[in-house]
Amino acid sequence: MPDVIKPLVDDQGEPLPPEVAAQQIEKLNIPWTDIHLYQPSNYAWPKVLADQLGVPVINHARRGACFQQIARQCAVAAKDITSDDVVIVMWTYISRLSLQWPSRTAVPFCNIVDPYWGWKTVILGFNRLFGLEPSKTSTKDTEDHIQQYIEKSTKETYLDPMGVYNRYYNSLVLQSMTDGFLRATGARVIHLSVEIEPLLDQLEQARLQLDPTLREPYVIPDPTEWYSVPVDYDSCHVILDPTIPPAENDMHPSVTHHANFARHIHKLYFK
Hints:
- The protein is built from ten helices and five strands, in the order αααβββαααβααβαα.
- The longest helix is centred in the middle third of the chain and has 23 residues, at 161-183.
- With 271 residues, it is mostly helical.
């Protein structure tokens, strides 16, 4: 969004092309915070929707968040939620994976097609992807060591069919628990998703990739018997509308996408 990014510019004040900007960032070791403002955008749909409703908004979203991060932000916010509030949670892709450490959050494998702002950014210093400054004590050797751990552990532990099913199943549990404690505040709770495919369907696909001896019957509770979170998988078509050009600086939804999405949510849930 234009109010939370300060693009690198040339001598005439024009933004540099992404590939040139990426080279300059690496060459000059430009701090992430010199380019990105770590704050919610006024063009993002939560603020646009709140303005339409005439209410204040608190945006707890974090850049690149996985299910764990989203649930954690909800937990952090829960103590301040009252019965007069409306809580809207927009869940990310269930396949998004992050590892948690006290001073870092990493999404080591991300399906980003832009070669200048995606995986390369993670390798150069994965804290930057989330608007965080690298550790003052980190060195290239420690960064390389951590990066090797991420690649090895995720490939061997998380990304085979058994790990995928385990992660997906536990994400459904986490989402159900998040829904429970949010509703316990008495607030109105709305669950949105950036995905068009329901989580139960994705979990079933993961189940079918397991060794036959691991599939059935369920010894652990069958999720179709306990998972009942009402998630809106249809509205994301508006914010992912491919007929509208993406944001100027990358492939994410543009200001127009966000405005259209806010109007859609307003009409659908608050008419």
